[in-house]
Every structure is written in C-alpha cells, then in structure tokens.
C-alpha cells in the first residue's frame, strides 16, 4: 500500500543489514523482530538518526505451550528481545487493541533514556482487514447454501479444536448430510473423534 500511495518511494529488502543500507533511507521497517541481531540493527538506525517502524501481528509474550512455536517465543531471551524492540522503536503498529494494551504494559516497564521511547502514542493500531483490491470483493451469498463446514488453521490452533471437539461431535452427529473439511494442519485427535460419529459415505470428512 505504501508503494502504491507513494509511487516515487524505493524499497530495499536486504537480509544482510549494514550501515550502507541506511544511506538514503527515510525510515527502517522491522516485521515481527525477535532475534538479537535485530536489536543491533535498531541501534545502528538510532546511531544514524533513522526513524524505525516495528510491526507485530501477534502477542509474542503470550504464546501458549500448545503452540509449536512456544519453544522459540517462550524463551526468556526472545521475549526480552521483543520488549527491547518495542521500547526502542519510533513507531510500533499492531493489529488489535488487546495487542496494543499488552505492548503498552511492556513499554511502561522501561526507564526513560536516550535509547528508549516511552510515549504510548507511538503504538498504533492498523486493524485487520480484507483487501478487496488484492482478493476481489466478497460475493453475496444468496439462495440455497451448500451444506459445507470448513475449518482453516495451522498447528498453532490445535488447542482451539481440542476445546470444541465435543461440540463438533454433536454437530456432526446431528447433521449427517453435511460435509466437513479441515484445511491446513488440523488436530488429528479431533478428526479421529469426529469420525467416530460420522456415518460414511454420507459424511465427507476430509483434511487437506
């Protein structure tokens, strides 16, 4: 969107970050930074008086143990790195108000100083949205519906499925003429439990 609205702006995507990358840059953008080398890059930006923009779309300080990424994001050093990036950035963008509140709590834990910017106004919400320009308008659903229930999600949401497995079993048992499809990384235990109440071949229970 920035490139479309600011057509004369150049974008440099360079995983090898050096001071030469900063020459001519108006600002530096970090997406979900969590490693120590990003802190070093942030300090380099500050030393060269380059504004920094950090974006988080998930609360990396509250990743549950059931999430496959917990061993990484649950690491105290990684959580410290995230906190440092939030405190040092000029602007932090997030997707929800709850995430902003969480990062505000982190920001308030840092002392005043040249390295840290404790202004709460720097944490800005850019709401989740559907990009009609990229994906096209959502068609209106009219008339008779297809009897299809679709779940989509990665392995990070396996606990969500586990919590609602019993409710899903009731739905499947009561609606044998419906189809149910799981896309992504569905929790295998939920699939097995639903198969116990399904009556093939009426039920199309698939995982892709």
For the largest beta-sheet, the strand count, sense and barrel status come to: 4 strands, parallel
Strand content: 15-25%
Number of helices: 9
Structural class: alpha/beta
Judging from the principal axes of the Cα atoms, what is the shape?
Answer: elongated
Give the low-confidence spans: 1-5
User: What is the multimeric organization of the chains shown?
Assistant: single chain
| Strand order in space, largest sheet | 1-2-3-4
- The string of secondary-structure elements, in order, is HEHEHHEHEHEHHEHE
Task: Kindly state the percentage of residues in helix.
Answer: 25-40%
Instruction: Give me the Rg, rounded.
Output: 23 Å
Distance between termini?
Answer: 32 Å
Give the key terms.
208 residues, alpha/beta, 4-stranded parallel sheet, 3-stranded parallel sheet, 9 helices, 36% helix, elongated, disordered N terminus
Would you kindly provide a brief summary of this structure?
The protein has 9 helices and 7 strands. It is α/β, with parallel strands linked by helices. The strands form 2 sheets. The chain has a 4-stranded parallel beta sheet with strand order 1-2-3-4, with helices on one face. A 3-stranded parallel beta sheet has the order 5-6-7, with helices on one face.
């Amino acid at each position: 969107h920035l490139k479309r609205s600011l057509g004369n702006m150049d974008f440099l995507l360079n995983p090898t970050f050096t001071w030469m990358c900063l020459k001519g840059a108006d600002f530096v953008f970090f997406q979900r930074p969590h490693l120590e080398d990003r802190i070093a890059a942030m300090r380099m930006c500050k030393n060269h008086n380059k504004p920094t923009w950090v974006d988080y779309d998930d609360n990396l300080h509250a990743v549950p143990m059931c999430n496959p990424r917990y061993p990484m994001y649950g690491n105290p050093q990684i959580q410290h790195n995230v906190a440092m990036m939030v405190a040092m950035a000029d602007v932090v963008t997030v997707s929800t108000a709850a995430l902003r509140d969480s990062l505000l709590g982190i920001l308030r834990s840092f002392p005043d100083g040249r390295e840290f910017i404790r202004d709460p106004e720097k944490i800005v919400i850019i709401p989740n949205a559907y990009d009609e320009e990229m994906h096209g308008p959502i068609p209106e659903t009219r008339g008779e519906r297809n009897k299809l229930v679709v779940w989509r999600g990665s392995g990070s949401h396996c606990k969500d499925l586990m919590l609602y497995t019993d409710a899903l079993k009731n739905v499947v048992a009561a609606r044998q003429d419906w189809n149910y499809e799981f896309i992504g990384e569905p929790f295998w235990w939920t699939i097995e439990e639903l198969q116990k109440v399904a009556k093939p071949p009426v039920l199309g229970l698939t995982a892709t």
